[in-house]
Amino acid sequence: MCGIIGYIGNKSINSILIVGLIRLEYRGYDSAGIAVIDQGDLEIRKEKGKIKNLEDLLKNSPVEGNIGIGHTRWATHGEPTKLNAHPHIDCFQKIAVCHNGIIENHINLKNELIQKGHLFRSETDTEVIPHLIEEELLKDPNQTIKDVIPGLIQKIEGKYAIVILSEQEPDKIYFIKNGSPLLYARNNEEGYLTSDIVAVIPQAKEYYAFRDYEWGWITQYELHLFNKDAQKIIPEIKEIKIDPIHLEKGNYEHYMLKEIYEQPDIFRKILNNRLGEKGKIKLNEMKLPNTILGRISRILITSAGTSWHAGIVGKLYLEHFARIVTEVDLSSEFRYRNPIAEGDTLVIAISQSGETADTLAGVLEAKTRFCKVLSFVNRLESTIARESDSYIDLMAGPEIGVASTKAYTSELIHLLFFSLYLSGIKWITNKEDREVLFSEIRKLPTMMEAILEKSKQIQEIAKIFKKTKDFIFLGRYFNHPTALEGALKLKEIAYVHASGYAGGEFKHGPIALIDENIPTICIAPKSSVYDKMLSNIQEVKARKGKIIAIITEGDKNISQIADYFIEIPEVSEYLSPILSIIPLQLFAYYSALERNCEPDKPRNLAKSVTVE
Ligand code: M6R
Question: Quick one: DSSP state of residue 427?
Fold first, then answer.
């Protein structure tokens, strides 16, 4: 939610900030703006809507300079208008601030500042920051911003990543971080501040991810870093290892489509890395020792959205393969329900971004209860990865489309691998049994490709249903989460109401919805619950409901009853959710196109939800 960038170097600021903001646009696209020191003056340009609008504004009203900050907004306080767009300024337009997060006590602060004569121009919480800095600087003309930041941290409450540019200090960008992500990145000639490293590659070569309450400033060549008590910190700078190829759309019209199509190759990479000799699973970065893993008596999974759906599959894997009692909780609930997490409970956090505020709060909560925390993350530089006792790298490569696709299947396979890893430690499955599983797992990339070849057929089905207003998704056991995830995809990018249900639960209420206008998407590959799903399909048919079925290749029973069917290759039921979601990802994508929706940037959403 909200993306921030700051730059100092020799290059012209416009292109650097705009390219960075485009890369950060997945974090919010309600408005965008930049502040630049142009020949000694602080210049602001901002516009409502996507970065494209800001680009157009800059063509008519250009700015020049080598130092600047930028912001792309996901509105929290105040409507998505030009006035509410960041950067926000002090009374005299000498100080500009971009902010990601929420200043919870902004109302009181704003009232006090208004009483002191400050002029507010927006409805945002952020605007108190430049005025608070201005107010403090007025008290003593010898002060610079570095002198007022420790006091500012004391005054503002909430979560924030803040960057500050001042006309008075044209060679520095200040920053403060608490709760929302912020990183420093650099090469030999340039310094950057950014919410996400993807905004600054391939130019930047090294990075440092700030910790809470760290603050300081960057110059072209240096980072000056301090803690809350204003003590100097020596940062541990790391190399950036992300391949920039992931950030290009290539020949695809949208990132989402590209990311759906990347899945077979990502799986090839994952399998190469994870499958060892003689049934051995390699999780080299996972540092929890067998002495701890062998003692786990209970697992609590906490995650949100798509990652929560992955968590439900993960519970089935962990209970099936490792025979460990596992609970799955929405991270937004977990953090407030005083969870029983103690002793030999392992808390697993699943998060593509590694920055989801609710999931991070769950991780911190678990740590206060002395539980070990293992996170499954796609971004190793993320806060959740850092705060966990250990992490497992999802290896999906940066995911840019707001709708999660490749990260979901990567979460599933890694949850399966971790379950098998635990089952090995507990001597539940032996190496030989695991080898048998591996031989099937190795076929997944080719099976995925076979499904992707059906994309035209899926597009046709999306076209047929382009006016449909409601969909029901049904699945059971390993594919109940597929029903939830398929429905979420359709809701978020095609703005169609869709609800996912467990097949067995259908008769307890939702079946009342069925008529000829509400189609049901049934996920019914061959499995131990196949007959039950077949009964569900018959029940829908008997009530004149249309059926779109996801079935195993060659299934004559369902293909004869369903109005439309999409075949997936035959596979064990525990691998089936990895395959059966792919046609639903494509169905959501093509449904969005049919309805003139923009799949990569659905309205009201942001990819990384860093506020509560
Ligand atoms: O980065 P995370 O996996 O923690 O994100 C969790 C959810 O915000 C995310 O999965 C969201 O539901 C996606 N838009 C789903 O496509």
Answer: T
